[in-house]
Amino acid sequence: MQLGLKIYGKSLLLLLLSIGLYFPVFAQFSFEVPKSANERILTYNSIQVEVSGKLALCSHSEKGHINLDIKGGTPPYTFRWNTNETTQNRTNLFAGTYTVEITDATGYKHVEKIIVQPPFPLILNPVEKKDASCGSGNDGSAKISVKIGRGEPYKVKWSNGLTNVWEANNLKPGTYTVTVIDKYNCDVTTSFEIGSASAGMSVSESITNSSCQGKNDGTISLSVSGGVGPYTYKWNTGASTKDISDLKSGIYEVLIKDTKGCAFQGIYKVDEPKGMELKSNVLAPSCSSSENGQITLDINGGTAPYTYSWSNGKTGPEIKNLPAGTYQVKVTDASGCFIQQEFKIENQSALTLQLVQSKNLSCSGENDGEIEIKITGAKGTVDITWSDGVKGSLSRKNLAAGTYEVKVTDESGCSSTKAVQVGQNESITARIESALEVNCDQGTVKGNAWVSFQGGKAPFKIKWSTGEVDKKEITFNQSGTLKVTITDALGCKVEAEAKVDFPKAATQGGRLDFNYRKLVINAEPEVLTQEEILFESEIAPEFIAWEWNFGDGTVSSEKDPIHVFEKAGIYEVKLTGFDIYGCSSFETNRIQVATATEMVVIPNAFTPNGDGLNDTFLPKMKAITAFHMEVFNTWGERLFVESGLEARGWDGSYRGQILPAGNYLYKITYTNREGIQTTKSGGITLIR
Q: Which residue windows are transmembrane per the record (predicted)?
């Protein structure tokens, strides 16, 4: 650290050689006063100034300052700087020389000269640059660096928006600036120019505008020079030719490039002449049904004469006798330019009828319908006529269902007709359905009845003859007639009824039983195989169907079936009865079936004395399918003959006369189950 001090008469020069450091300086002065006749030598306590300060950070910035510490003299002091400030201390000073005149209370003046030394300057190297390859190309570049500075970090700002980079690329020809800012926020700016390595293209154009407004017959022709041919063309219409045609009015852009990639952007405008202006006067028909409308045209612009083509086939600037509707016209001038326009003719003050109210019949068959009509757009008095002959009224009451048409005609003869339908609310239809709910296990039956209905207007009220209300489904437990009344929100009613049956369930006590017997009576009481057995049932009327199960795999639906067991064994025969609800009851019996073995035992005597024991002569038979017996006296006279398995035997009489005791002869023929026939004969003794 060094301090430089120079004396200039009564002034001091303070040199501060380091940034940011402060250096006090003390100056003491003594003055001599000349002597004269009346002179006295006076000693004065001179002003002493102690100076401290700070260098400017930048050569062009107000960052330096000066502080004065005053001693000696006679306070108070006044200050006047060479920059006209009157403060003791100074701030935000540029580098340079500053002078201050200090005056104390006695008028003594003291002058100080102070130098604020500038810092080292920020100096840039010349810009390193490369020109663009094309007249309007953007491949130029520039590079900047610091030659003398006070250390990083530096900030770099380019005029094209780039920041904090030392090199800028993709530059077009033109003038640019770059600014470098050091860490003390001191900056330096330099400018440079990017040129072009080759001359740009020159383009001239010839434009033909559209001949008519909206017509596509404009053209653009280009003449290109400069650059390096050949050239390519890209129009915003998609065309790639130098010249384009069939253009309507508008803006057209083209991009032209030469072989080096240098480009030219051109924007051209195709105009069109002012078109024809069409003014019209449209008159609507006097009534909605009239055909006295009119359209009149007045044409300005374009080139006369004009021709007219209307959508209804008419020509000329005026068409008459028109009904309401839409009409189009095409007007063409002498240059072939044309204008098209559409006109809509609407009825003026059309007489219309509006339905204010239409009330349907409250219930089917009633005559309480109503209609109320409102008229709008009528002129003067009107005539009102209804289709049923009624006149003069727009309000109708006590109407039956049907269609009513009203016609209204005003003073101008315009008329309107309106038809109104007076309907009737859909009539209510109802039906009662029923079903029985059976619990076979508990032997109970419950009847369910429900009503279904259509039509009418909700909500509905329901009332049953059993007393229930507002229920669609009820229960019943006896046969009879159920009735229900349905009433809708309008008070319309309908009644429905149905007969319901509540039959007694067989499971509630119906008798079911059976027994059996052999159809062929023989000597054997047990049931044998191959014998026909008749099963006889006792079934209560509540059972409407039944089923037999004989235990041998066969069944029958007959009430009293005949069955033959093919094999010996013990069979459980089951009779099941079914009532109207499908519930069932059953009864079972066990039957032992023996094997049938052929046996015929012929007694040799009998005692027909009426005591119930051995009163008839009849063999004991088993497993026999046919039997025939004849009895003779010893003279060979036949006394008795009998056939069949149900034979009762001979009781010892002949033609009602009791025969005496004695010996008699018999002849017996029988057939077994195998079909073998056997004949036996012998004697029998009648004992009395």
A: none
Rg (CA), the chain: 71
What is the C-alpha to C-alpha distance for residues 407 and 421, in angstroms, rounded to an integer?
Answer: 15
Burial of 129 (0-12, 13-18, 19+ CB in 10 A): middle
Q: Shortest CA distance to 536 belongs to which of 503, 560, 566, 553?
A: 560
Fold of 123-194: Immunoglobulin-like (2.60.40)
Give domain limits for the chain. Answer: 48-116, 123-194, 201-270, 277-345, 352-422, 429-500, 512-593, 599-686
In terms of C-beta distances under 8 Å and separation of at least 24 residues, what long-range contacts does 401-406 make, across chains too? 401/360, 401/361, 401/369, 404/371, 406/353, 406/373
Contacts with 301 (C-beta within 8 Å, 6 or more apart), sequence order: 274, 275, 276, 277
State the fold for domain 599-686.
Immunoglobulin-like (2.60.40)
pLDDT tens, residue by residue, 466-478? 899 999 999 888 8
The strand ranges marked E within 1-125 are 3-8, 11-16, 25-27, 48-54, 64-71, 78-81, 90-93, 96-103, 109-116, 123-124
Q: Is the entire prediction scored with pTM above 0.70?
A: no
Contact between 89 and 102 (Cβ < 8 Å) = no
Superfamily name and number for 512-593: Immunoglobulins (2.60.40.10)
Residue 112 has a CB neighbour count (10 Å cut-off) of 24
Task: Please give the CATH number for the structural domain made up of 48-116.
Answer: 2.60.40.1080
Nearest alpha carbon to residue 445 among 582, 627, 606: 582
* Architecture per CATH, 277-345: Sandwich (2.60)
Give bridge partners of residue 81 from the DSSP assignment: 100
Which residues of the chain fall below pLDDT 50?
1-43
**Residues 6 or more apart whose Cβ sits within 8 Å of residue 299:** 276, 277, 278, 279, 306, 317, 331
Give every CB contact of residue 4 below 8 A, 6+ residues apart in sequence.
13, 14, 15, 17
CATH number of 429-500: 2.60.40
CATH 3.40.140.10 for domain 201-270, yes or no, is: no
Residue 507: phi and psi, rounded to 5, are: -70, -5
